Amino acid sequence: MVKRKNIIFSFALGLIGFLITTPILAGKTSKLFPLPLELEQDFQFWIRVYTEIDTYHGFVHDSDHINVIYNTVALPQNGNENIVKDQIEHYKQILLKIAQGKRKKLSAEEKKVLALWPKNITHKELRAAADRIRFQRGQADRFKEGLIRSGAYKSFIYKTLKASGLPQELAVLPHVESSFNPGAYSKVGASGLWQFTRATGQRFLQVNHIIDERRDPFQSTIAAAQLLQYNYEMLKSWPLAITAYNHGISGMVQAKKQLNTSDIATIRQQYKSPIFGFASKNFYLSFLAALEVDKNAIHYFGALKLDKPNSDEVVELTHFVPIHSLVQVFKTDEIALKKVNPALLDPVWHGVKYVPQGYKLHIPCSPTCRREKIIAFLAPWQEFDQQIPDKFYQVQQGQTLSEIAKKHGVAIDTLAQVNNLSHPYKIRVGQKLRLPLPELSSTKMLAKTEVKESYILNTNKVPTLTEYTVQQGDTLSTIAQRFGIQAHKITNFNKISDPRNLQIGQNLQLPIAESDYTIQQGDTLSTIAQKFKIKPHILAAFNRISDPRKIQIGQHLRLPAHMVITNYTVQSGDTLSTIAEQFGMNSQKLARLNGISDPRKIRSGQQLKLLGAITKDYIVQQGDTLSTIAQRFGITLQALLDSNGINDKHQIYIGQRLQLAQSPVDQVEN
């Protein structure tokens, strides 16, 4: 076996000069992240990779003794890398020739190769070295670009590490993983700034066909801190915890147990495992080299102008929202919003899926910041309580993914992405594929969902027609509930014979009743909203008011009667969940609307406010009268009679199904 201490590094004089001018890791860093003396030369190898040669050059070297460098190769600009194979074969033949015992009358190149090894190296060791030649591409240009990009993320990374009680030095790990590129994607499927694989990412992040938080530099930073903390708690050694980030925690636990040591140099040289390859063996050393170069960037690259720290505003969505609605409300363009929200996948941008509830939306801080409150101006019909449901297709005999994509008008890349398929897209008969809708251009998407309203006259009670385009997942009931209209009125007005036969893209005319209010001296949007029991942001959205401060005396406001708050009296046996379900509301919204901190503490007879139209059914019970039912649900007797086509208020029977629908105009007048 070749003894490492006897190995002579190529171009010895150059190395001595390099070592003299290279700052050395010291202080607290060396205690947490030690550099064993026997690994010093390999550490310098990685510094050279990061600072001396760019991606159009590389070292031909020994994979075990990586400081043994046979040649520096320039790669052709056309991408043809056959030269690498030729160089590896060339030096392999030189080593095999020397290993035959002919050490005299060597060519100048052969002497140079032999001089890289100890004088007493055996023929057997040279033959083994002939099979260990590999190529390492330079990274100097990428490292420099990574230094510039790191300016956008370093401050957040430092804060995250500090909050987790982790060493600040870990902030340089993205240099090794992605060169601080959030869009980085490896050939083995690792993604993002911190290069999470899908399996590891799903332990800490949302990774599915709608959202992939591995691509979010901020969420993935939090996840990386959690993973590193877990690794350290398991291994009690930062060199092993960092190696485990690449190799996996179970592998490093096994290495520690097998060799009965936590010494990284011993494990690197002696641990044997089929998956403990070159990348894993050198991951800790490449981290140390990145730490050295990052700390002394001026020494290696001169003064650099780093990217400004990220200053996006972040808004957590309380509903599912179409992406085009967010583009409209924030007055930004889709390209800008997409750039700062890389976690949102194609189905969202193509209008196939809504932006998920709970998603932390980044808003470009341009031209001004402090726009987070604008989210309140989403119209009621732009917010949804559920995601658009998935549609599936079962693969038939002889079909390919390309044929299925073409058949359904979907881009093959999109179809592959939502089904987590990697090239060459192998599918099997009987396999169920998620099937997104056909892609739509931004213009078509906006036109498809735009709500067009007719001109409103200045009268006290105005029925107006609103045009609505049917979306994926819509039913007549959900549309009626969203706009506070009775379902049968939609069917009658649009002459729909079978409510089940709604078509995506179908235009419906919705008869919505409204009232009109003229702004008086001293009015504010808040006081008007309070007067008519309407939430201020709903009133603003309904009137397309972007700045609530800019309303004027004499201005006419439309009052969306179907969104007015009504009352309900809690009955014996009621729970907040059953009441919310009965009236098509979210139980959390119902609790917030009524200031209820503990949903278990509601009592019989308590009055609850309900937002939205009451469109659920009720089964008549023993002792019921229409008057008591109307009173219980906070609606007028006449509205109950009208919605059920009843002429005689005394003619009801036990078991009869009644539709409970609040009269919109009556709601305003109450």
Automatic annotation (TrEMBL):
Q: Which InterPro entries does this one have?
A: LysM, LysM_dom_sf, Lysozyme-like_dom_sf, Transglyc_AS, Transglycosylase_SLT_dom_1
Cite the GO molecular-function annotations of the record: peptidoglycan lytic transglycosylase activity
PROSITE patterns per record: LYSM (PS51782), TRANSGLYCOSYLASE (PS00922)
Recorded GO cellular component terms are: membrane
Protein family (similarity comment): Belongs to the transglycosylase Slt family.
Q: Which PANTHER family match?
A: LYSM DOMAIN-CONTAINING GPI-ANCHORED PROTEIN 2, MEMBRANE-BOUND LYTIC MUREIN TRANSGLYCOSYLASE D
The protein depicted here goes by the name LysM domain protein (Modular protein)
Write down the species.
Candidatus Nitrosacidococcus tergens
